[in-house]
Amino acid sequence: MSARRYNATPALHRLRNGLRVVTTPMPNAHTMSISFAVRAGSVYDPPRAPGLAHFIEHLVFKATDDYSRPQLAAAMQRCGNRFDPTTGKETITIAGTVPAGKVDDALRLVASVSQRPRFDRADVEIERQVVLEELRDWEDDPSKRIESLADRALWGSHPLGRDTGGTRSSVRVITRDQVRRFHNRYFHPRNSVLSMAGPMSHRDLLGAAREHFGGWQPSKGAAMPRRHPVDVIEPVFPQGRRSKVLRRSDTSQVWFSLSTTTPSYAQGYESVLRAQLAQVVIGDGDGSRLWDGLRERLGLAYEVYATLDFYVESGVMSALSAVGRGRAGTAVREMKRILDETADGFSREEFSRGRDALAAQIELSSDWNAANAGRYAELALFDQPLVTPAQELAMLNEVRVGEFNSFVKESIRWDTAAVCAIGGGPALAAVRD
Q1: Pairing outcome for strands 83-87 and 253-262
Q2: For 417, left (φ over 0), alpha (ψ -120 to 50), or beta?
């Protein structure tokens, strides 16, 4: 089929059952990427069953009405074993990339695990042990534990403050009935998005979606998730303290983080793009302020970086590092100083380098099927316009240093950051202070 018959931009469709389908033809690709997303993340866990959404993410890849567990494993193997289910704060996503000739097999598999999981009692108990082992791994790894500690410090009792995986004690008592009710409530067409990117036309992609998802109907008890509003400017800090420390004697390093909120989708995509630019200039590798300040100038850390996560109403930016106990206090104070100084603005040259870096990242990801399928699934699920990489680059080109500096000063408030640390020694006192 000639490439001229393809339209490179995404298209949003809605099936009769309410399922949103995003099709993105990529004629030069040799693989097909699929991203199936549901608004059913950990913020929707029942208060007495934290970790339920994550548990379900594990269980849908057990037996279904169409496949026994061995048959499901064999089907995934034949497709290349590149399926990646994940649970976030607000979403559960099933993503996969397969050879172009395996599209029908892959969609049949994703439709089965999302629509018709059996949740056999034996599977529930076996996977419970797997999840418990995963939680032990999280608890033993400071680089993972620091993230959940920061969430609790930043959001307090708000559902965004929960650990996505729950706790070992909560997972031990999750019941099969709770699993089935949660799945019936949130896994339905109106609460889901299917996004596909690869070497097929809009018409062919939509036809494949209709074949495997067009007959999907909601179960009794299906409902749309209840919103959990947040205030982007004043997050729900616990009363009296914005720091959390976890004393660990079994590590020679101190892991620490500073976290604050940023605008997100609710404030418009221009704000999302400016927040991404801020993350690049603050802590995305060589040339960023944190890298140059803590690693290159002072040699305090092997690795220092900033992360950025977007939820519907708020973003979260975190600066993280790990250093030896004896130097951790100095590193914490230096990181805080560097971050506080971002309110004074960035030079024209620093801004230009950061904008070029973000533009390069956008261009590199634009040729990646999985990145396109995933981004459009999230945008559609959160009822956002399907902003293309070309549109992103055009928006980025319009950003000027003065307005960017004003955005950072007003919208990324490191002076109210939540500060967390894991380890031992006098550095913990620096965090408390």
Answers
A1: unpaired
A2: beta
Which CATH homologous superfamily contains domain 243-432?
Answer: Metalloenzyme, LuxS/M16 peptidase-like (3.30.830.10)
Q: Which CATH architecture has domain 3-213?
A: 2-Layer Sandwich (3.30)
Q: Which two structure tokens, joined as six digits, stand for 150?
A: 């920061």
Q: What are the backbone angles phi and psi of residue 231, rounded to the nearest 5°?
A: -100, 115
> Rounded distance, CA 428 to CA 389, Å?
43
Among 56-70, 136-150, 413-427, the range scoring the smallest mean pLDDT is: 413-427
Taking the whole predicted model, whether its pTM rises above 0.85 is answered as yes
pLDDT of residue 82: 86
Q: How far apart (Å, rounded) are the C-alpha atoms in residues 225 and 41?
A: 10
Question: DSSP label at 200?
Answer: S
Sketch the domain layout of the chain as residue ranges.
3-213, 243-432
Residue type, 340: D
3-213 against 243-432: fold identical: yes
Nearest to 58 by CA among 6, 135, 2: 135
Residue 405: count of CB within 10 angstroms of its CB: 17
